[in-house]
Design brief:
The chain is an alpha+beta fold. The chain has 2 domains: about 220 residues, Alpha-Beta Complex (set domain protein methyltransferase, domain 1); about 160 residues, set domain protein methyltransferase, domain 2, CATH 3.90.1420. Helix content is about 50%, strand content about 10%. It is built from 15 helices and 14 strands. One of its GO terms (biological process) is methylation.
């Protein structure tokens, strides 16, 4: 975990925010907003923090929840918690007299490091799986926007200024990047029990942070307890969960310099290989086998691991004669491996599967190297393109990490082939 000291922020908006908290009896904490060289804005320890301390406690009245919003919008609607929270943020931003104004003013101005906001010149260079997920995220945001417009149209009593798609997108991304998941408070929220919590949402993420969090019924507050000690001046972190850097980039707009959860997804390459090597009938037969055994898709490699699912798919592909008599016998041998009764079908099948993996990794390595080279000169090729410098930095890091995992996997495959 990075131990770099931060520089406390003393701008007017933050001071107004702190005054708002104090005026409304928000519990004091040993956290102050600060700038850090490597992570940007985050929370810094203003004093030593011991393991086991509650680092922030957010009282119920400061929690923007499905329950609190139902008092404004009612509960007889089809909006999910995410849709409703985003709609409410838009309305609060329009209301200059809102009780929440000090908090709203501190929310991010833009989300230009998130792929959903990338210009086409960067979108074109996302990994295939991430590109598809970002496209779906764009569709989700717009469909949520339309759902909120339909809700407002059917509830003319709720007075709101015109809501533009970009306003709703900003609010949707605020919720997506800053919400917490509630426990023991509400069980009826549609589409996930989430909430916004001032102060708590300024804490940055690292996989090394150990915390306990949840709604404390006794004092009616959402609390985060750190199991990691901090010294005065250090950045205080929370842990968002076991996310790889592609997920971190899509959902939060940043990546970690060292992320033990990183992997490379090879589904597209595996299915391309199936199409190249199998007849249409043979492809259908083997697809049904994979689906029936629960091994269809989710084929990945990590720095120190070739997924069992991936090898299962390649071992099946390495079996000849999918449409010939006697293939059922071969599939029974394949099932023995899948069920853990034996390590391999036979050395020849294992060799073929590993050579297929080698071929796939070589293809992906070439793509990664091409992308790294292209991104190194993208500002020269697209001088008119406007994108956040961190967006480019993060995208280059993602491809470099993928290339590193592929290189390690190729070395492991070479070693395995040498033993057969």
């Amino acid at each position: 975990m990075d131990k770099a000291r931060g520089t406390a922020i003393h701008d007017k908006k933050y001071e107004t925010f702190i005054q708002w908290l104090q005026a409304n009896n928000f519990p004091e904490s040993k956290l102050v907003l600060a700038n850090f060289t490597n992570t940007g804005r985050g929370m810094m320890a203003s004093d030593d923090i011991q393991a086991g301390e509650v680092i922030v406690s957010v009282p119920r009245k400061f929690l923007m929840t499905n329950e609190s919003l139902s008092k404004i919008y009612g509960s007889n609607h089809a909006l999910s918690s995410h849709q409703l929270l985003a709609l409410h943020l838009v309305m609060l931003k329009q209301d200059k007299q809102s009780w929440w104004k000090a908090y709203i003013d501190l929310l991010p101005v833009h989300f230009n490091t998130m792929p959903v906001k990338y210009t086409q010149s960067l979108l074109d260079h996302l990994p295939t799986a991430l590109k598809e997920q970002v496209s779906q995220q764009k569709e989700n945001i717009y469909s949520d926007y339309l759902a909120c417009l339909a809700y407002l149209k059917s509830n003319p009593a709720i007075i709101v200024e015109s809501i533009q798609p970009e306003d709703y997108e900003w609010a949707w991304l605020c919720v997506n990047t800053r919400c917490i998941h509630m426990t023991k408070m509400e069980h009826s929220a549609k589409g996930g029990n989430i909430a916004l919590a001032p102060m708590l949402d300024f804490l940055n993420h690292t996989t090394e942070a150990k915390i306990e969090s949840g709604y404390n019924v006794r004092n009616q507050s959402f609390e985060i307890k750190t199991l990691t000690p901090y010294r005065k001046g250090e950045q205080v972190y929370i842990n968002y969960g076991p996310h790889d850097n592609l997920a971190m980039l899509k959902e939060y707009g940043f990546v970690l310099s060292q992320n033990c959860y990183n992997f490379v997804l090879l589904d597209h390459e595996v299915w391309t290989l199936y199409e190249e090597m199998e007849t249409k009938q043979g492809f259908d037969v083997k697809k049904q086998i994979l689906e029936g055994a629960g091994y269809f898709g989710d084929y990945s490699i990590k720095d120190d691991e070739i997924s069992f699912r991936l090898m299962a798919a390649l071992r099946l592909l390495a079996l000849d004669g999918a449409t010939e008599p006697g293939f059922d016998r071969k599939v029974m041998d394949w099932h023995d491996v899948v069920m853990g009764q034996t390590d391999m079908i036979d050395p020849e099948n294992e060799r073929k599967a590993l050579i297929m993996l080698q071929s796939i990794c070589n293809r992906v390595a070439r793509q990664a190297e091409e992308e790294i080279e292209t991104l190194a000169h993208i500002t020269e090729k697209h001088p008119e393109a406007e994108f956040h410098p961190f967006a480019l930095y993060f995208l280059r890091q993602v491809w470099n990490e993928s290339n590193g995992i592929i290189t390690q996997t190729l070395a492991d495959v070479k070693e395995k082939l040498a033993t057969l």
